[in-house]
Amino acid sequence: MFDTLTKAPGDKILALMGEYAADSRSDKIDLGVGVYKDEQGTTPIMSSVKKAEQRILAAGKTKTYLGIAGNKGYGAAVLDLAIADAVDRSRVRIAQAPGGTGSLWVLMQLVNRARPGATIWLSDPTWPNHNPIAENAGLKVAVYPYFDTETRGVKFAEMLAALDKLGKDDVVLLHGCCHNPTGANLTNAQWDQVATSLARTGALPLIDLAYLGFGDGLLEDSYGTRKVIASVPEALIAFSGSKNFGLYRERIGAAIVIARDEAQADIVNSQMLNVIRSSYSQPPDHGAEIIRVILEDKELRAEWETELNAMRARMIGLRAKLSDAIRQRSNSKDFDFIAAHRGMFSLLGLPNSVVEHLKATNGVYMIGDSRINVAGIPEDRVGDLADALLAAIK
Ligand code: LMR
User: Fold this and answer.
1) Is the C-beta atom of 13 inside 6 A of ligand 1?
2) Full-prediction pTM beyond 0.90?
3) CA distance 165 to 147
4) Domain ranges across the chain
5) Which of 144, 228, 253, 375 is the most exposed place for a label (fewest CB within 10 A)?
6) Hey, which residues are catalytic here?
């Protein structure tokens, strides 16, 4: 049977996790996989999450099946968080899914049922898993211009010109906030223009909302999502609770559909639930129940928001510290973009040879395209990192 197979390519982000773990150097620095790290370099369980888990353990009475769409309270709470009152809820359907990846997978399968082999447009560059999920779903992949390697900002005029040429059978994957891998994001005024373009062309937006709250704040980070869905008749959103609730291994996300009207929403929802039932049947509950308990309880929600705000502030602080340290040492503003970027990542724009050199010589691990996870920068090693970067690019 299996003699027809050849080895599949590995995932570069997860492969780097393994390489880092196997490196015995005590002064190694992990700027690779996108997990939040605190000052001690650990990825802690949030205190609000621990408290929710204790409540769940004490109150739990059953482990019976949840149903295909998942935890209903979770779904309602996620919609309040991600889209608020941007569109009438009669047009909205949500299905809990395993992580942001599972949500993307469900939504892309759904698109392929509606328009087999449709083209999905991804930003150049994008999270490396977008492409395989889309191809596995049967979609064709194309790219639109996004990152300007000179300014390390968004090539907005080129991006918009590409979006303006799309048609109603196209799908556009947009990063709702905290662009992965670049860290370069659209301004609110640019989101307004993107929304106008999509409303005119009829292309279907699929918004990947994996880092809500990691950029400028919960409300600020959902501006683009709310603006786009309020402007177009149909839209898709893939939500993730991995980062903002620190629930990575619980695999908790949600696939959200905004349809033209209530009747169409019911039809699309039936197809979405059919996709889920014929693949993993139903979602697991634990991560969803944690998020439901937190978001429905005033005190736990306040505690979670305080924790989330602290994580965001720490990442913004680390961005400023690293760009300051590089500016002081090099007397140049070449890396000031790190402070201007938002979210967990910045794409440094370094050649792969420099990335490999930093790994081999300094034990500094970043993704091969020179994406760094700013949360991984050790507070007391910012100067060392600046020195290593500057030495490597000399
Ligand atoms: C990342 O981009 O590092 C994260 O989203 C983790 C992953 O699954 O790739």
Assistant:
1) yes
2) yes
3) 19
4) 12-45+300-393, 65-296
5) 144
6) 127, 208, 210, 243
